């Protein structure tokens, strides 16, 4: 059984017991425990079920590489599935449940898969479930979906908050072990701005558990001193519980800080995502131990040797009372010594190597432990809890009748160590296979490079393959550019590792079908060999066919074992197989942290006009337009939106309406070459526009398609103001800058987007002039300010630009005032306009009125496939200009095709409103058996002015077919409509020109 | 080729699965083939498969620089739909979708096509109008889609937040027979079927030159030596421009990184595919339980297969806003692929200035769903030397003539 030892435990505080619940049972742990160490202290070795076969799963590791001990943590709006027990710091009241079983952990119906494992090898589902055709989606897939997955999804919105922050450093040291601290000291002493990130809550990494002497001190004492020195240095920032998740191009490092996971009661954000720009990254991320592949290596009680040692030394937890050690290297002997020091039994050490003489081996032998050379585990006894191991020779085929069984409740296995090279590899750092150490380590000649072509990361210590303590510190010191002497270390000498990928070497197929590689996804040695046999020879094929390394540990535990097994199966050296791609994040990071504060009301910035609050106070129904919200209409009590829109249209046409037009883009273009520039940007001529005049302009893409429209005003000799659509302002500004910066960089033009600097009000209707004259200050008579002109002055004491333009067909003045005066000006207009029944109107009334006038709307009449000529806007295209953006494109054969769909007005025979998006079918079918079509509706509204439906549409040769009736399909119905002129109201424009 | 079935699996289980044969052969190149397809991704393999199946042309090699299915076929978000607006697109993608329905049986390889339904959310009035137009267009094109209201959206996707403070869900374009498939299996299934017809799939065989004489293709030089051919089909997605340059012509293509990511696996919580174009995010849940999430493209040209971090943030924000329960789930893995973008964001299936050389590229961000239809149309083009009705509108000449097939209005950013 596993239990808490009476003494020891460098990370726990025995004075602070903590209560927690696992599967509804209250248990006690200690401050400093992880959930895993606390579970082990409560004799909970089996904590979950595997993904595919639902086999019993126990804790294997003590850190981020843990594949098995995944739990659902928390409750309600703080429930989270798939949390690793080995990296959860225990807190008072923690609630965890095990996953992937029904009805409970001990008895799981899904375990039937385990008994059928022989029939369910890698990729069996590609070969089955094909008949009958419908059965996959209806029958098999739903069953597979239910039995797959791990934890359940949360069922409500997250109660926690998250934040994001930026950091900049010359040197970012990832990993707070002795290598990281050595690198940090070296960098900091050289005057660099240093940031140190450590993913756990403790400095020092493995060294305090593994032992040795650094500068005459034990590792614990040395680490304390080093941290004290670093804390005092102003150029150093130390950050615990902060993992480097990914290294992206240009030294962009993502840090994932778990601020309050260990203290959920506090009011701090739960996670903080750091976007770090690093001059250079020192990857001091250490190494991870590999398991060994023997039959039954997945039975709860079989653990990594390093993890067993961690639990004993760090948390004073004995994973078992009798621990057999199986290894192919010297490091695992440290585990034997730690167990012996804690008074626990080590019945045997099984070492696959022969003629062992290393310091650590001798030390273990000296304690009276049986060290068996050339030996291996043939199989294990026990199913949900280990009871013993049957041993054999490593160079044999397995156990015989004579084989010895050693009773034990824990196996500590070590297959060697793999440097953690993830960050190095994320951005293209290459690896080389070190055959003598049996590991992939960074190739220092092929680092990831930054914008300057120089290395942006360097691996240090165990992460670069320097596993011995002295080598590790020397390497780390050098990696950070340290001068002078590195810390001096003493540690036992170790004999070389002997790679072992299958145990025993000649194991038969039945045994190999029980040797787990990927513990979570149930991938066994036999599966990888099957993949190789079937031709899935690329390491990527094997991964995808077997799901090796696709579990939540992303292959940290045993990918290298899998690659080696594949290499043996293909009879090729390991480097010829290579690795799969290392992708961020290093361990999974919460979506909450990735999103940061941007949720709910803060999801996207909300742009408000100066009059936004007024609209809100007056009952505006909002419509999102880009990041703006614009009033769609202002319904009064008892009014539907439709009623409100009709009222607003009629009031405006009869007397006076006000529109908040502040969102319209206002881009100022200025400079000696501004006229020439605008002549290229617009289809018309803007350079010849006299000062004080307005002109309607069209902008096309270089492919000829209409992208935006608006009124251009010449403010002064070298200054133009370009109005754009609301949605187009930023896009068009970027479009202008794109051409200026990339193509016409020598033209003397500046642009500025002044959209938010002005509030703009459209004063619309027969009484518009009367209202503005009441304000006084400017002559707004027809003679002083005729249609399509502009004047600057003071209106009612407010500086104003007044434009005589109209999008409604009525007499209209668009008045721009400084944004700070916008609300006051609007309120003044409302007050002074009361005698005319002034009515604020929204975007829908705007749409209805423009459609009544036959004006186009970007996004309705255009969709990225429409050219101005299609919209009968040839009059706005200069025939004289040599060039403008889109001109050449518009001359292409298809663009000049007389059969193009062109804009017309449409009206139904009964006055009803045509449905949105209706399409007119034509006779016959095309080569793909689709109905031929001849047109579509682009805008359709009920016109309160005319008392019937009106629409515009694009119809093949439309303008040539006036009066013709065609049938539109929509909502499964056919609706007849007559082709008519697109201008439904005031065809001669008399009303706007008074 | 030994047939796959539940009985075959049971039979092989008796031998502990040591008796399975290779899914595809790994041959050495012959000196000459009637047709060489460059690129053993889904599109290339499907082209080869339908050359054999529909036209009896089996003296075919599929040449691949790396491992088959290793480009965008193996790194997409596996969405299959055909609710396109423009007629030529709808025809091609609907052909593909309908072939997907029977593909497992056709190939005797379970590609796990799962018509679980697909929603494109409308979150602005403009999108409502756009999707209604698409429904009307689809009706005339023979593509089954319909417009559904927010209530039905909520019923199909219980975890969706239909009253978001910024962009409430106004409805959706629903394609009930859209869905997903297992992307790797599509490549593997075609590869196995091609190999069984006697075609050679040459992996780790990089093309270094395209040889030509008298204006027509003669063969290719590869890292495994020169190979002659009667016809050459270039089907290499992100590296199309590179191959075109070898063949002596230019393509109107830009290559960019597109990203995707998956969550840790969880029990089923979303059964349909949801695309939200206003907020830029799309999501489905794989049979393994991972949420499969599509991200954005970088706004600059590159070949890194990585992509910029801020797109991941934008995508995840959009999805948390739409599905608040996912906030506490974790991102397991993010990656990128290289997509080749044309001027109208629609593909190219075309003859080229070089005789007997054909090109299939430009699928942009949406190639996976098209694989069977693309292969079908491309095989016809290669076999006959002229495009059939499916490919007719996707020729290179459309850029010269201005005959664009632009889906941007219906598909927003992602398609």
Automatic annotation (TrEMBL), chain A:
Stretches assigned to the FAD/NAD(P)-binding domain: 170-423
Entry-linked NCBIfam families: soxA
Domain Aminomethyltransferase C-terminal, chain residue ranges per copy: 902-986
Taxon lineage: Bacteria, Pseudomonadati, Pseudomonadota, Alphaproteobacteria, Rhodobacterales
Domain SoxA A3: 513-596
GO biological process, one term: tetrahydrofolate metabolic process
Cited InterPro entries: 2Fe-2S-bd_N, FAD/NAD-bd_sf, FAD/NAD-binding_dom, GcvT/YgfZ/DmdA, GcvT/YgfZ_C, GcvT_C, GCVT_N, Sarcosine_oxidase_asu
SUPFAM superfamilies: Aminomethyltransferase beta-barrel domain, FAD/NAD(P)-binding domain, Folate-binding domain
Location of the GCVT N-terminal domain: 611-881
Keywords attached to this entry: Oxidoreductase
One Gene Ontology MF term: sarcosine oxidase activity
Protein name (database record): Sarcosine oxidase subunit alpha family protein
Keyword Acyltransferase: no
Superkingdom in the source lineage: Bacteria
Recorded family membership: Belongs to the GcvT family.
UniProtKB/TrEMBL annotation, chain B:
Localization of this protein: Cytoplasm
EC number: 1.5.3.24
Molecular function terms from GO: nucleotide binding; sarcosine oxidase activity
Protein name as it appears in the record: Sarcosine oxidase subunit beta
Cofactor: FMN; FAD
Gene3D superfamilies: D-Amino Acid Oxidase, subunit A, domain 2 (3.30.9.10), FAD/NAD(P)-binding domain (3.50.50.60)
Cellular component terms (Gene Ontology): cytoplasm
Organism: Phaeovulum veldkampii DSM 11550
Recorded catalytic activity of this chain's protein: sarcosine + (6S)-5,6,7,8-tetrahydrofolate + O2 = (6R)-5,10-methylene-5,6,7,8-tetrahydrofolate + glycine + H2O2; sarcosine + O2 + H2O = formaldehyde + glycine + H2O2
Pfam families: DAO
The entry's keywords: Cytoplasm, FAD, Flavoprotein, FMN, Nucleotide-binding, Oxidoreductase
Keyword presence, Iron: no
Chain ranges of the Rhodanese domain: 35-79
EC class name: oxidoreductase
GO BP, sorted A to Z: tetrahydrofolate metabolic process
Family: Belongs to the SoxB family.
